[in-house]
Design brief:
By secondary structure, the protein is mostly helical. The protein is built from ten helices and no strands.
């Protein structure tokens, strides 16, 4: 009688373990597909072409293409929108900022809200992240740079200034963006 109970217990345990193993395999497959799908979405929404797909971003895309970090025509490293406009200090911060920024832009586009971009230029440091600059510009006091730049970068690295990268390099991402935005407004009013 005890042998029969032991056998039944083993059979139940075997099927119970099988269900657990099957559930685990299915869970791992779903998790893997979900993660791959999410990575694909993050990559797709991180391209300059995706950012420029909103009509309000066209002028920024054109200004970026013509700027030093645009399409690399001037021999300088190409920086995508997300390289400058999202933090790169850690993955959680990056994904959070991307989600918040994307949601704000989507809601603004749906409801037709047009920010005062020229006025926002005064707060440009709020829309860029130094961790993005530092990701590429690792050595700020490299040999051969002009002495004025060396002194400014040295003060920055020693924490002797409150200036940020964008304080001194305002036109690096989009060239003279104020002029382009002004021209866009003039052209729009002329229509």
């Amino acid at each position: 009688m005890d042998e029969k109970k032991g056998l039944i217990k083993k059979i139940k345990s075997f099927f119970k373990d099988r269900i657990f193993v099957k559930g685990l395999i299915v869970g791992v497959i779903f998790a893997t597909v979900f993660i791959i799908f999410q990575i694909g979405i993050i990559e797709h929404t991180s391209t300059p072409e995706f950012c420029a797909s909103c009509h309000s971003m066209e002028v920024f895309h054109v200004a970026w293409e013509e700027g030093v970090h645009g399409t690399g025509k001037k021999g300088i490293v190409v920086a995508r929108c997300v390289d400058c406009h999202l933090p790169h200090d850690n993955l959680v911060h990056y994904l959070w900022a991307k989600g918040v920024s994307g949601t704000k832009d989507t809601v603004a586009t749906i409801f037709g809200y047009q920010p005062d971009w020229i006025k926002n230029l005064e707060r440009r440091e709020e829309f860029t992240y130094e961790s993005g600059c530092k990701k590429c510009h690792v050595n700020l006091v490299a040999p051969g740079i002009p002495i004025k730049a060396f002194k400014a970068h040295r003060q920055y690295e020693l924490g002797e200034t409150n200036k940020t990268c964008i304080s001194c390099h305002q036109d690096v991402g989009h060239g003279d963006l104020k002029l382009k935005l002004s021209n866009k407004i003039v052209n729009k009013e002329a229509l």
